[in-house]
Amino acid sequence: MKRKIALLFCSLLILDLYGQESFKPDAIKPQVWAMPTTDNIRLDGKLLEPSWTKAQPATSFTQVEPYQEHKANDSTEVKLLYDDRYIYIAAFCRDTLGTKSLKAPDLMRDFNWRAHDTFAIVFDGFCDHRNGMSFVTNPYGAQKDYLSFDDTYFDSDWNGLWQVRTSRSDSGWVAEFAIPWKTLRYAKKDVREMGINFLRLRRQSNEISVWSKYPRSYGFSRMEYAGVLKGIQPPAPGTNLQVNPYVLFSRHDKDGSNTVSYKMGGEAKWAINPNTVADFTFNTDFAQADADLQVNNITRFSVFFPEKRQFFLENASLFGPGISPNDDLSGGNMTIQPFFSRRIGLDALGNPIPIDAGARMVYRSSKRSIGAMLVRQHAYDTLPASQFTTVRYTENIGKQNRLGMLVTGKSSPGHVNGVTALDGFFRFGQAHSFSVMAMHSATTAKPGGLAAYGRYFYTTNKFKFWLSESIVTKDFNPEAGFVSRQDVVATAPGFFWYYRGQRLPYRKFIRSFEPGVASEFYHSITRGELIERSVKITPAWLTLQTGGYIGFSVTPSYQNLSTPFEPLGVYIPAGQFSYTRYALSMGSNPSRKVSYIFLYESGSYFNGRLNLTDLQLNLSPLPNIALRLRYNDNYFQEVGDQFTTQHVRLYTAQLRLALNPRLQLVGLFQKNTQTNTNAYNVRLSWEYKPLSYVYLIYNSRTSTTDPSVREVTQIAKVSFLKQF
């Protein structure tokens, strides 16, 4: 064992010497000055006010992609103004091809920025090189924003109060931001500077450039690489309260039984000081949340659906330590989350359960973070009323390390469940990081259970290596969390090599060659034997200059079933199975008017064969029109003890019609031959003022085999946000 450990560290040392194209932050950081203004800034993307001509621009953007530290091919200029209410940022993104070059496949909020021409800003209000607050737009004024910590934990669906308008011309495009000081978080008084950085993606050439450079193996939110914003004098924090009431009318028709109801409630956010924010919700409603996309699951793992409800999204990264395949590949398919907010207000099938009220308070500083959440779930059907409690504490150690504790609880009459967790994150130098967590669950009248994981990462521009080890006992039971499987010890090592050298052929079309291996091994604790093994070998993966890709993989697998397994209704008996699957993955330039993502898997599957086809076609003739079609087909051939041969198909169609980023009609249709259902979701949303909405929603679910089984919901909802 000692020889293996020594060999591992020697190998990592060699990788460090060979793969190090990364660099440390500059000792002297670039600076940009903001100028005070008394002009009445009209937000229109035209920059006609005299103050804009006087402000000194930040220029000299350098590439992150494709050629690190090279000068950007198309220049970008950024100017900043401020008054006692707002900080204004104007970005002129020059483009030699003018409007013909601009790419924007849709106008949705929180768009996929890598498919668009993009300009982004990130603020480090506390100058602690750890916390980031990002604001992003495209040439048509769509908005994206998120919070980040250590460029590792992200609140991607946080929605801040800010505005942006854009204009387009033959020389490029302009984005004009107005961000209220009350939206930003900064020290209590005497603030004269902040950390800041700017990013531009020119999608025509797929070139990413930034004002303050950082290695491409890191992210835009790696704040120790940010520059410095100087010359500001933001107002001292005062009253900062947002109230967001709503009124809702609904009609529900299920199997011929009609009910009509109305509902009132709302939320409030109180920034007690720059470090502390309290959120309150009453008679909570999430009717406007995006519908879940259905998944036909052929694995032994439970499906981990992401959270989409706004109250639970803000500061989700603070309350959500754990591992999940949604985050990265390092944990394999294993998911361990001591707290998972979808356990609140949703049943096992994703149907809503009323929430009476909730409260959350979060304190963040350069030294520590503290959070607490309390939510009361209403009694529903056969379920009693329940209280969910979560308390979180983290202490920052040094520049990039952290220790934390999390306590969760769920209680109802005669029943209490809780989890206590200790965790840590450590960054050793620029390339090495390690995260660890240990958890204990306790339930009324049941034995307690344990879970833990450790995860090591090595990342440079040329190599990515990881090793993850996790354990979950059979009695570990996080009722306010999520665990994909119990009674296992899981090991998941893997690596990727990123090659961009001179020997790479067709460099005009190919950006990088990225072969790798991702493996998973699962041993049963009680049985003391290997129960599952998969080794995904990717000998060829090409990332194209356009952002497209093509790759091929081979995955030898082993399954040792102690109980039967029934994927998509196909009964597979207990026993040992070895099989190999082959996969071809392809994706085109996602910014084009017509793009696609294609996956085809074939090969043996347990005692038979399975062919999987997954095709997604995206049509976007204009930014205002976006159609996404998806076809998923699982073709079983002589699988299981009945030697079943059958197709299980899932059809999905999503249409988005947008007059502008603030007025959109979205439709979703899903047809599943496994459940014999057709599901429709249609939503008209109008943001009539920032973060104030009118929603008209239509939901329908019908059986394809029994027309009498039908459920229809019609909803009208109006919300209003007022900031004091």
UniProtKB/TrEMBL annotation:
GO BP terms, alphabetized:
carbohydrate catabolic process
Please name the GO terms that the record assigns under molecular function: carbohydrate binding; hydrolase activity, hydrolyzing O-glycosyl compounds
Q: Which CDD domains match?
A: CBM9_like_2
Q: What positions does the domain DUF5916 occupy?
A: 237-346
Ranges of residues in domain Carbohydrate-binding:
43-199
Q: What is this protein called?
A: Uncharacterized protein
Natural source organism: Chryseolinea soli
